[in-house]
C-alpha cells in the first residue's frame, strides 16, 4: 500500500483523507483503479502547501568597499533550525544551525562547529585513493575554531543544549576566501533560527596592501598584504573575537585596522538584523536554563567564603598547593550542602561553590587590586631563559615564566622536506608549501594529570598555529633550509602559547637562524563588572598582565599578543562575555606592548642576536654547477647516481635550474663525502678532448630496437645512436645494417644537446661522399678517408 511522501497517509486512507472523496461510497476493488489519480492530486496539494509554508526566501546585500556581500535564507536546508547562504564574488558558503530541545548532562555549552573544505566546490577531485573527502585538515580545524570563538560568547549563560553549526562550501572562486563568509553565515543562521542567541555578529578580514587598508582582500591582494586580521564584532561596536598575523605592523596601524574592521562589521550586523525582522523570528524558550540556586549560593557564602578568601590572599601558594587547598574546601562545603539540601541536583551543588569561589576571586581584583600570587595588575611573573640546552640539537632553549615552562628545539632539513599543501587548500588559499613550521605539544604531566598521548587535538593545533604566525615574519624568505620548531610544554600555569613564542625565538637564535628581530609574546586578561541596568555594557574592569591559569578560568578574556620591539606579528583574542568595547581592546594592546618590551629585555640578557654561524654538527647546503654536457652523467640513468648518493651519505640533491643543483647534507662530514662522490662521478677528462665535427671510432656495446648503444672510449657511459642517425635509409632495427655488439663504426661528434645534455652522434652523415677525418683519442694525427672537399659540418 503506497503512502503520501509528505504526510505519510496510505493509499486506502488517502481516499478518505482527500476532501473531494469524503462523501463518496466505493468498493474496495475500486481503490486500485482510482487510487493513483487521487494520490497524484494529494501529493501535488501537499507539496504546494509545504513549499508555500517554508519558502520564505529573503536576501540582503552589504556594500563592502567595491564589492557586495550577499546573505540569503529560506531556499536551502529548510529542515535545519536556521540556514543561511553568504556569497562574495563567486564564492558561496551555506551554514546551518541546529539545537536540540532537551538539555544535556554536561556543565558547559556543548557547541560543535564543523567547517569542511569541499573539493567539488573548488572544482577539484580529492587526491586520496578513494577520491572522496576523508578526515579533517589543519586548515579546516583552525577555521572551525575561528567560527566557534566568534559565536560562543553570545549564547545565554546556562544554555546547555547540544548545538551544531555546519559550514558547507557550495562554490569557491579561488579569489575570495570562504572562512570569513562562514563566520557571517553562522551568525545569520543563528539569527534567523529560533535558537536562543544574543547576536548577530559581523566579521571581516582586514589587509594592509601598499600602505592602504583593504576590507576582505582577494587572494592575490593577500600575497602582498602586511596584515591578515580577522575581527568579529557584536552590535554597538563591541569586539567578540580577533585573530591576526602581521609582518611586524606598527601598533598604531594595527589599532586603526581593528577600528575599521569593527566599523564594516556593523554593516553586516545591520543587514542580518533586517533579515531576522523580515522573517519575524521568535526565539524559543528553553525548558531549563542552568544557573546556580540563589539560596544555595548564599549558604555557600556563609560556609566557605572566609576560607576561600584566605587561600586566594595567601601568596605562598603555587598552582598545585592553591588548587589542593580550594578543592579541600570544595569537598567539605559540598558535603554540608548535600546534608542541608538532600534533593539538590549535583550540578546545583557544584555550581553554588563555583559561583562563590569565582565571585571572591574577581572581587579581589576589582575592589582590592589583588592577584592571588601577590603581583601588581601589570607585573610579569619571574622569567628565566637558557639556550643551547642539548649540544647535539641544531638549536634549543628553555623558557620559564612563573610555573609555565616550555622547551623549544630547532631542526633543519632540506627544502624538499617542506610541507606540501593538498590541492584543495591550494585552490582555496593559494598556499602550495611552507618551509617553516612550529609544532606545539601539551602532555598531561604539564598539569599533573594522566591522559592519552599521541595525536593532535584542536587546542594544541590552535596554539601551535598562533606561535607559528608570531615567528614566521622574522624568518628570512630565502633561508636555504626547512625549519621545524617544536615546543613542548613541561609545566603549565597559563599562557603556554606565548611562552612557546619566546622559547621559539630563543631557540632560533641559538640555531643561528638570521631572524630579523627577536619575538616575545604575552597574555593579558580581564576582570569586568557588568552594568546592572544595561547588561551589555561594562561598568568597571581591570586588565591583568601575564595571566595565570586560574585568572584565565575566572576571567573574561584571554588576549594574546606577540611581536618585536618594533611592531606586532600575531594576535588572538578569546572573549568570554558578549563583547568588548574598543576602548578596552586598545588598552589591552598598549598594556601588552609594554609587557612585550620588558620580556624582550630579559631575553636579550641570555642571547642578544642570532649566532654568527650554525653549529658544527648542523646541516650544510651547497650549490653545485653541473654543465649540461655532464648532467646526464651526474644524474645517472633514471636518477641512479642521486639515489645512490642519498643511500650512502644521507645527502639529498634537488635541481634549481638547468645547470644548478642544491646539495643538502645532514652533517658537514656527509657533505665532504658527497663532494668526493660528485667529483668522481663528474670527472671526465677524455670527453674534454672531443672536437666538435670530428669523426671518431665508436664501439657498439648493445643492440636495441631503436638504435645502438656506443662508447667512444673505455670508461665512457654508453650513449644511444638512434636508428635515424645510422643510415640514410629508414630502418626498423639495427640488424638490417648487419651491426653487431663489439663492432666498431665511424661516427661524427656534434657536441651536447643544449636542452637535455645528451651527446649527439651521427653515422648517417658519413654515408655521403665527403672529405672526412677520423680522430683517435689515443692518436692525435688525422687519417684521410675519402676524396672531395674539406671538412663537413652536416648535423644529425
TrEMBL record:
Keywords: Cytoplasm, Nucleotidyltransferase, RNA-binding, Transferase. Residues 693-764 form the S1 motif domain. The keyword NADP does not apply. GO terms for cellular component: cytosol; mitochondrion. One of its GO terms (molecular function) is 3'-5'-RNA exonuclease activity. Signal peptide: none annotated. GO terms for biological process: mitochondrial mRNA catabolic process; mitochondrial RNA 3'-end processing. InterPro entries: ExoRNase_PH_dom1, ExoRNase_PH_dom2, ExoRNase_PH_dom2_sf, KH_dom, KH_dom_type_1, KH_dom_type_1_sf, NA-bd_OB-fold, PNPase. PROSITE patterns: KH_TYPE_1, S1. Its EC number is 2.7.7.8. SUPFAM superfamilies: Eukaryotic type KH-domain (KH-domain type I) (SSF54791), Nucleic acid-binding proteins (SSF50249), Polynucleotide phosphorylase/guanosine pentaphosphate synthase (PNPase/GPSI), domain 3 (SSF46915), Ribonuclease PH domain 2-like (SSF55666), Ribosomal protein S5 domain 2-like (SSF54211). Belongs to the polyribonucleotide nucleotidyltransferase family. This is polyribonucleotide nucleotidyltransferase. It comes from Paramormyrops kingsleyae.
